[in-house]
Amino acid sequence: MNHPRVEVFDTTLRDGAQREGITYSVADKLAVARLLDQVGVSYIEGGWPGALPKDTEFFARARTELQLQHAVLVAFGATRKAGVRVEDDAQVRALLDSQAPVVCLVAKSDPRHVRDALRTTPEENRAMVADTVAFLVGHGRRVFVDCEHFFDGYAADPDHGVAVLQAAFDAGAEVGVLCDTNGGMLPSGISRVVTEVRGRVTGQLGIHCQDDTGCAVANSLAAVEAGVTQVQGTANGYGERAGNANTFTLIGNLVTKMGLPVVPAECLPELSRVSHAIAELANLTPDDHQPFVGASAFAHKAGLHASAIKVSPELYNHLDPAVVGNDMRILVTEMAGRASVELKGRELGVDLTGQGDAVGRVVAAVKEREARGWSYEAADASFELLLRGELPGAPAPLFELESWRTTVEHRTDGAVVSEAVVKVGLPDGDGGTERVVAVGEGNGPVNALDNALRAALVTRWPQLADVALSDYKVRILGWTGGTSATTRVLVDTTDKAGEWTTVGVHENVVEASWLALVDALTYAVVSR
Amino acid sequence: MNHPRVEVFDTTLRDGAQREGITYSVADKLAVARLLDQVGVSYIEGGWPGALPKDTEFFARARTELQLQHAVLVAFGATRKAGVRVEDDAQVRALLDSQAPVVCLVAKSDPRHVRDALRTTPEENRAMVADTVAFLVGHGRRVFVDCEHFFDGYAADPDHGVAVLQAAFDAGAEVGVLCDTNGGMLPSGISRVVTEVRGRVTGQLGIHCQDDTGCAVANSLAAVEAGVTQVQGTANGYGERAGNANTFTLIGNLVTKMGLPVVPAECLPELSRVSHAIAELANLTPDDHQPFVGASAFAHKAGLHASAIKVSPELYNHLDPAVVGNDMRILVTEMAGRASVELKGRELGVDLTGQGDAVGRVVAAVKEREARGWSYEAADASFELLLRGELPGAPAPLFELESWRTTVEHRTDGAVVSEAVVKVGLPDGDGGTERVVAVGEGNGPVNALDNALRAALVTRWPQLADVALSDYKVRILGWTGGTSATTRVLVDTTDKAGEWTTVGVHENVVEASWLALVDALTYAVVSR
After folding, report:
1. Which of A22, A285, B236, B525 is 20 to 30 A from A55 in CA distance terms?
2. Does B186 contact A297 at a Cβ distance shorter than 8 Å?
3. Taking CA atoms, what residue in A is nearest to B15?
């Protein structure tokens, strides 16, 4: 393929903010813009100044607070109202006032929307587009035009949208963006329409896809293959309904699969970090299974592959994960052999050189434990403790357990109360032991035990004050056989710097939880 | 397009189980298979009998416990080992023993994998395929062959994989499935290779795509457009790394966008419910933004379009959401409209004729409770109790609760002991109340409570002696807001005749479990 330069237009801060549950502050928006710039997108659409006060403020602050290296800032807006002179339209004036060098105007391109939503004529609609484009271009702005509902409109009347597009180009628009606003298209349909439209207008075309058929990325790529040169997407695919084409998946595919250098080479390894950071700013859990950048995107569970992966990783990955700043994670499972343990050790930064015997003991321990229901694939912290326990300089246990007891009561007055008492011996530094008895309350037996154990340990290890249980999963493993069910507990724990996962297995669910808790706090002390 | 019949092959229970964090019990697998059958897929791949003991048990139990209406059960397996006679290969024998009518064999079709992973020759590899297919066909099985790493192999050597495919067809295989095992393909590449391969072999082709480029669905559809007639996917796209092609998105697109009736018409509206129920069984949060079936898939953020949507919803949706059992502007809470409740009532054998008011109260109660974290999608028994509670002849509560207390101790001798005391009032038959105090032991606080409550009730209802808790799932629902997390517990309970699921929600995990237990035992008394 001999393509003209293809550019990525990111609309995380405008269309992506339509996703249910996302509410950015202006500071968030500035931070997201900086991150998007770090992955090297060409355009960052920041919002709709004039329509949304927060977006007006964003553009005002961006002038002094945002130094972009790669991207150009874009203001989104509408064409002038029907029957109003463009220079009298306050919304259009606000686009100028934003001082964004590029304006992206939305234009109705489905005749049914012109009639039913805009309640005007196709002629006035085209005049609104032409007037607004010409006015902004006359004031020195570059103008792109989003042709909303283009594909549905094209199916209803192939001439209407093309006429809108041509009106925009004639008035000086630089790019006409074909939008699958309702997201119902498939790649073959996109390909056909783009090819037809390219034959009917002169001007640079863009593509904007929603993911309602699960094909937003593929639709965008089909449009690029058919000749569009601007691709719109959002970080992590955030957007209304099923979301938008995912900017990071687009970049991954355009660069590594289609050979189109849409971002500077040095930016590509920022992809994974930026994806996770934007998820944090949006206050959403990162999708571990997101292509290219997800924590599991290069994780291998099937044990039958682990030894072969060590020899030839390229046979089992579609891409070297380092290219997009990701990492190959090996899941330690019951089928794991020495190769998996060695790879995992390398990933955790544990030097296993000359530790063949220790590796053998870890493999044996993992097999023996997983046969009894333990699972280390999600519990990296427990695995690291197991591994360190077999190596020279293994950390000593934090305490000797004497006993614990936890109680939950539903009292006659309806109150539900949980309490726990923990009795442990702590090393006193002189080779002796100091006996500590501590009590905790909580919203369940495990939460109470966690609070009691931390109360017992926190005077010795003050960092445990910042440690908190953040998630808790229980599985009954009926199928492991024996007379009574085994229970597996996974505990997620956080401190200020991050999160780790530990595992415990026992017939008794609270003892299983206790084992996971002890690993969680031990990890906080020895490995954080 | 004039297509031969296209069939959907679901591998949720085999390849989908490779997703990190998924561990199904055999009962879960049977439940997932029943749900997949309800959406009308043609094939359900249940697992790898012989290799995984749980899968061997699944196929054994499926023979008596699984009555499929639409789907045919498929056993996955490998070809015979290199240098071993097929009739001497225990793994191949286990495939016969599973009694699955269809076997799907995996065959290496990338020459580099044959050399580096299998460590044999292309000739022996083809012989392994041919011998195993012929052996299984000779024993009356239908055989499909998954050509692993087909597309990467095709890029390296276009003849190798085609020869494997032809060997399979020559030996009697019914379908040769082209697998993008590493998931690195884009639709145009899939289209080209499928077209070329179709010109070189005679036989029915299938497609299996992984989502590492975010194009698994589009890749699968491109293959169908190029002539394959079997499409593999997994529920909600669960699978290794970025996951597999999503069975539900595939069905939505094949039926509503491409006009291919891959599932019976009456099954399509089951799509959303089944998607959510399988997420519950996998103990994963349903993806609200999943195309077609997500709770937000047809949700429109307030503002902009609201009034126009009311007038012409078809202008703002790519599809009428009811077609796939979804709803416009739904939250999960709103999935239970009157129609769903009536439908569900009919399914449960509850006559709702003339019960419009009661149905309205149930809809309101479900909405109110689901807003607080309850979920009835997987908890049919709790839903039935809620429904019966609003109808004439509503069953009285089994008992009045005075109080309960449950204790778990890790004693100084290392023994872990759980006990519970339950104090209830039972109706004495003369309008009075008999006070009963009962104690139970168990392998955890909930098991002890279950035993204590059954001890309190079993003299009045002897059938409770045969009732046992069989599975238990806990989910922390941090997102319901407030100062402390809410916990949802799902309890599976069995008696001699079958299994039912109940739900409880509370800040305290043991109180949530108690609520689910009370529903479980009440259901055993009033509905079994």
Report:
1. A285
2. no
3. A302
